[in-house]
Give the backbone structure.
Amino acid sequence: MNPPLFSPPLLRLAGRVLRHSPWQSALMVLGILLGVAVVVAVDLANQSASRAFDLSAESVAGKATHTLVGGPTGLDEAAYTELRRAGLPYPAAPLVSAYVTVPELGGLPLQLLGIDPFSEAPFRNYLAAEGELPLADLARFLTQPGALLLAESLAQRYGLVLGDPLTILVNGQSQPAFVAGLLTPSDDASRRALEGLLLADIATAQELTGTLGRLNQIDLILPDAAAADALAARLPTGLTLLPAAARSGAVEQMTAAFRTNLTALSLLALVVGVFLIYNSMTFSVVRRRPLFGTLRCLGVTRAEVFALVVGEAFLVGTLGGTLGVLAGLVLGQAALGVVTQTINDLFFVVTVRDVAVPWASLLKGGLLGMGATVLAAAFPAWEAANVPPRQALNRAGLESRAARLVNWAALGGVGMLLLGALVLALPSRSLVLAFSGTFGVVIGCALLTPLATRALMRLAATLGGPVIGVLGRLAPREVVNSLSRTGIAVAALMVAVSVSIGVNLMVGSFRYTVEVWLEQILQGDIYVSVPGASLSQTSAPLDPEIVQTLRTWPGVEQAVFLRSVEVDSPYGPIQLAANDNPQDGDEQIYYSASGTPTEVWQAVQNGAVLVSEPLARRLGLPEQGGTLTLYTDHGPVEFPIAGIYYDYGSSVGVVSLGLETYRQHWADDALTAAALTLQPGEDVEAVTRALQTALAPQQAVIIRPNQALRADTLTIFDRTFAITGALQLLATGVAFVGVLSAMLSLLLEKQRQLGILRAVGLSVRQMWVLTLLETGLMGAAAGLLAMPTGFVLALILVYVINRRSFGWTLQLQFSAEPFVQAFAIAVLAALLAGLIPARRMARRNISEGMRFD
Amino acid sequence: MKPLLSLLTLLAFTLAACAPPAPLAAQLRSEALPVEGFARAEGIQPFEFPRDFGPHPEYQTEWWYYTGNLDTADGRHFGYQFTIFRRGLLPASQTADRPSAWAADQLYFAHFALTDIGGDAFYFEERFERGAAGLAGAQAAPYSVWLADWQVEETAPGVVRLQARGQSGALDLTLTDRKGPILQGQQGYSQKGPEPGNASYYYSQPRLESAGQIEVNGESFEVSGLSWKDHEFSTSALSPGQIGWDWFSLQLSDGTDLMLYTMRRDDGSIDAFSHGTLIHPDGRAEYLPFDQYTITVLDTWTSPHSGAVYPAAWQIDLPAYNLSLTLQPWQADQELRLSFIYWEGAVKISGSHNGQPLTGNGYVELTGYYASMEGEF
Amino acid sequence: MTETQQTIRLENVSKTYTEGERQRTVLADASAAFAPGEFTAILGKSGSGKSTLLNLISGIDAADAGAVWFGGQDLLALNERQRTLFRRQHIGFVFQFFNLLPTLTVLENVTLPLELTGAPLKTARAQALPLLEAVGLADRAATFPERLSGGEQQRVAIARALAHNPRLVLADEPTGNLDSATGESILTLLERLTRQNGKNLIMVTHSQASAARADRIYRLENGQLLPQPK
């Protein structure tokens, strides 16, 4: 006498219930689908980008244990020959690498890897199975200028065959090359890594990138630390031996915060989705109370009723989860483009051509959706299980219980708020903690929503009655009377909209801060730089002739030059910005400084460095009196830090120093960019055009007036936040589905009542008004309540999340626009959600409505 | 059956998931570069030293070949082979003028083998470098040929230092030339086949007194003995149907040195272009056409590594010179399995010359037993 | 002996509800016996506690004191889950508002109690179809309840109440929501089918006329079950 929990008739019943209210079921599925899709898409994009980075780091690092690096321009190629001729007993391979774009290959940044095939085998075997070199095949590769090898799949995508010409764009120069060989990867990982690579002989790579005589690095496989120490001891100065893993690890670390942010935003969509499920399930349970009563009479046990409701949720969750995973795959392609673009803009070049499909990621997304659904349904299911048999409890009784629940929820909300605030206040740099705290605050606000909604509705009834008449009183009361359902719908919408406010305020503040900062630092009239393969690659040097031209150009009062390079340090690669600007000390905004701007600049002239705020945070540098070690051409040098300055150009961080200082420590007289100040009265546009015409034959440089550079910078800024906007929109979409579903169920339940109203004489138009008034009120409540929540969220984002993620201090810029916009979205979404059910109601005839039940 | 199968599948999945990221692997597909325009050995050309100690990039293939038999004071015997090959990727007429110092139209590779009779061991390895950026090359004066840290370098007229350090052994020898360069074939023009151009230019330094250190598995030995150097350059010397050669460099106790080779054809016969040179103790050389000597194989050895069957003992007769020799490998396994598979080994000689018993050491090279060399050289 | 085993008896059953601040005693030391195959009517005014009585007999509610005997089994000795399973097995219900499951077809509504007791669908159908035949709705088996008239719905409910061959059928104002002619025919059908199958039928009603059909009539007054002569 112990029947199974899921007996066949009950399972059938669960399926029937879902089929019988297809709208509600579809909306529940849609809610989960959207939530899961967003989570999966972001996860896929993150993983693909991260994997692509790993792959490209790995395809470059190969099996190397250590890397020998030189200064910012690499190391002298003679160093390699010396090592080999001296009989280095370990595998060593020279490498020249650069990011290039090839119009024939879609114009995406590709890594050009110059290798020596004879020393490659122990490191990377693109060319053949271990120990076998196809010498005959290599002849062309070695001897023909511009000979490149590329992945067969890449060539096929762009319809290229052996011998086809290619144009290599690098450092503003265009170089001819051709397809000398095609590589067929032996596995999927190799295929993905190869798709971002162009392989050339080291001679070819030097010729294409104009780095004759230089190598980027020498890879080594050393058996142990002792061997590394011994080798390091006999290295000439200027060469530094670094462990290979430390280098790529430090680089990848930089994007971790960015990826965590995306994941948190995607989880938010799921949280809103869970609200929706909870909402819908509660509805469907409440509506079916008599049915559960009957079932209990007929001898269905509590456990079976619980299982029945959870079973329904399980069906919805499975369907929504599965479809969500599929949708996530599609969405992932789109997300990947945006994520990759941002990583390329902000961090480093990574070429991802397709979404890697890690099954774990899909499974995780699907299970998350299913689990969330079942969890969300647990409470309604428990409710259903406790419906007393045959007790046709009227809604009034239920609502009186709900009213009590509202108070408890509010109490819990206050608790969650306090807990969230406490977690946020913890002195930690953990992003996970920060986001947990944020979720706590948001959920706390959501729990307070029903109570606040009730208060707002009472206010609306008082205010609305005299203005609109009976409908004005009736509508808010209806909302309060069904608070068990409406409260949740309002909370879900409130959460989505408040996130929109918070994110918009944060982005607005960020943008404002960057604008102010640009205003301060962009003091020149015209800026000249060399296009890199991506924005994060800005060390391509200006042609010396151009430098001379700029110095002596008529009308130029002052030409300030910048050398921007990456050097190695004990903390990984570090971006240096060396300039000869005598006013630089005044043009920076300092976070902390060792003295007055003049004193700081004096120190910088004497060899001290300035560190940007993100770098100072990343390395945990002290506000005063810190030092920074960099590997110079003559070994590690400890530089005093004269100050920490605000910089929003790089989340990775920059070290700023005097050009003189730079050249003392590094044998490199290249220059990367120039800022020109014109004599008073000169026409900036005219000089820009004249320079463009004059310099075009020498090198493809970008010459921009101040405003254009500012605009370009802000464009990149906006691009960076595009995905944030998209995710936020999706969360609102899920909330919209929630409100729609809530309204549908509510009105369905009220058909009888509306039937009575119609019978009493409510016109179709009035019924429209009543319905839309109700949903509109709900939207308005959500919009209003979202305002304080959104503001708190903005504070958290600006002062906690952003600082922990990127190390930027932002000035909170308050503007009314996000609030107005959010309110409008909330009301509009709610009204829109009311349309469909209202239409349905209007079409029903009165008797049909009355006969229901 | 079914559950077992699924369990195995699962296990495979788990293993794949746990495996460290595999190194990048791919297969290259390219088109071989058509090579025409290398000079060919088409007749007698005057040799000139030291110029001809250096490289001849107008020919596609060239090698500097050192072999030797060495003994420690207490009689532990070693053999060594040290060869640097040069292969032209492009004839000079086709090379582009390229600014990078790494731009290479020459490929160098080297074979280094040690036979340790006392340790019953045979070590061999191969290295490649481009003939550019100073990584590998050769020069006439002062004479030097090198590949990374493997090198032969002239230290005084007629004296070179040979240094090579491999994974399980090293060599550091001073070689003193006692007979000077001996031109092989007809004044250094060594015809290998009937077609014009299927020939090489070839000289030897057959008697190099050798002394220095040999290191095997970390143990160092003072050794002395005799080395032999060959230097040969050509462009596609083999003719169709020639599958390989048996080559002998023999240093006899009475001061006589002997080079012989037989070119084997795919039908099992010996090509009539095979020839040799007899070098008297005073350095006088005599050309030995094919019909002047007979080589009888007395035994064979089957390589347990490659399965190839090699001759493993020989009877060599030069009736006109009243010279009769029996050759035994110092040890059977001296097979090199590198870019190509061949046998190159130290041999022990006993025999008689004009009725006088004699002994000696030599090196024998056996190619084309595993796979035909046709088209390779 | 057999008689006792089959008899359903209430022994000194008391039940008090708390409504807000007030205590309301619905049953006070009430006793009654229902012989096998007997049709009993319980008369009472609205709010006299008729529904509570049914809840106690069916094990939906537990009495505060006393015993509810089903043969040798005291329902009050069982816990909630055991009572539910007991109900599933031994009791059929006919409600005033029919309470058919709107998402199940007529046939599925009838087979539901059978399937709940674990009968395979085939067996359940085989037993349900003759019942639908008996209530004259075999041709509507695949219809959903909302397409039926009130009388038809109540006929389905009767078939459902008998489907799993229960010992006892409880009817709560079965004609309360029907016009008198339909109510009359429903009552006739209910009586005929329970008697045919030898079931106990306990019907709660406020209608003297309906009660007149019963073998025995109790009146529920002041928490007491008072036998009333016909």
